[in-house]
Design the sequence.
């Protein structure tokens, strides 16, 4: 007969499952969240992670803010290069929330993983994807389409997996942008055509598709851009960019549909260029 070891609970204590336990440090009753608040930076609205600096009175400053300050933001005392080694050691035992938790990220990480996670966090604020407007707006992912409708009403929205993106007046001089939103599969895709001129006066057109969504969502789709007439066609197929990937980077790398003005004239009609845009789910 096997024996079963049991532990008698103290009076007033109750059992709890592993999933219900609040993370604690050995020998303390402080929750992980309570400990994390000890590391809050008064300037950056984030956490002071190693290396952690302090003033002579013990007030903390994060390593990002420290080089920008000459005095303590809390007591206005002199701010040198004093390190709080005790808190730096304690920080390795604490899980810190991602700084984008107000946008929906529920990830908590140790200090060494927090910074690298935030660089690629898919909940980080989205920039306005509309090119050529110099719009400085940024916000949550689900606020992008309302922003475009309210602030950039010239951006047309078409529904369907296969549509024709019509760029008008492509013969106008200078740098030009054409933008269209395509709605299908429950997502919004933005097709962009840009006309650029290099330092030698040579003009080229660049076109790509960007998902108003995360990179994980974007890899589930493929897009096809096609210029066609009765005799020939020019096509480009790729995975859409996510809204967190810059269109300008794709253009610089020419990781998009690229053609010159003479090619554009072959497929254009009366100065207007139609691009067939197809979205497929992988």
Sequence:
């Amino acid at each position: 007969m096997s024996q079963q070891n049991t532990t008698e609970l103290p009076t007033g204590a109750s059992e709890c499952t592993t999933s219900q336990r609040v993370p604690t440090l050995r020998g303390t009753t402080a929750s992980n969240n309570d400990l994390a608040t000890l590391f809050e930076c008064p300037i950056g609205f984030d956490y002071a992670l190693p290396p952690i600096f302090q003033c002579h009175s013990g007030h903390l400053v994060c390593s990002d803010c420290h080089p920008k300050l000459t005095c303590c933001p809390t007591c206005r005392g002199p701010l040198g290069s004093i390190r709080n080694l005790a808190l730096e050691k304690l920080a390795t035992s604490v899980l810190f929330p991602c700084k984008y938790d107000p946008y929906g990220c529920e990830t908590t990480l140790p200090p060494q993983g927090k910074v690298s996670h935030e660089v690629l966090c898919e909940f980080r604020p989205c920039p306005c994807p509309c090119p050529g407007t110099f719009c400085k707006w940024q916000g949550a992912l689900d606020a992008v389409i309302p922003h475009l409708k309210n602030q950039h009403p010239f951006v047309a929205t078409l529904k369907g997996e296969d549509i024709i993106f019509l760029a008008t007046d492509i013969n106008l001089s200078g740098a030009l942008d054409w933008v269209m939103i395509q709605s299908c599969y429950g997502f919004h895709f933005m097709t962009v055509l840009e006309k650029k001129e290099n330092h030698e006066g040579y003009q080229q057109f660049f076109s790509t598709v960007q998902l108003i969504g995360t990179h994980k969502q974007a890899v589930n789709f493929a897009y096809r851009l096609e210029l066609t007439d009765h005799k020939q066609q020019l096509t480009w197929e790729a995975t859409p960019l996510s809204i967190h990937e810059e269109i300008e980077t794709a253009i610089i790398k020419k990781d998009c549909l690229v053609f010159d003005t003479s090619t554009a004239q072959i497929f254009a009609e009366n100065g207007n260029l139609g691009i067939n845009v197809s979205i497929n789910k992988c």
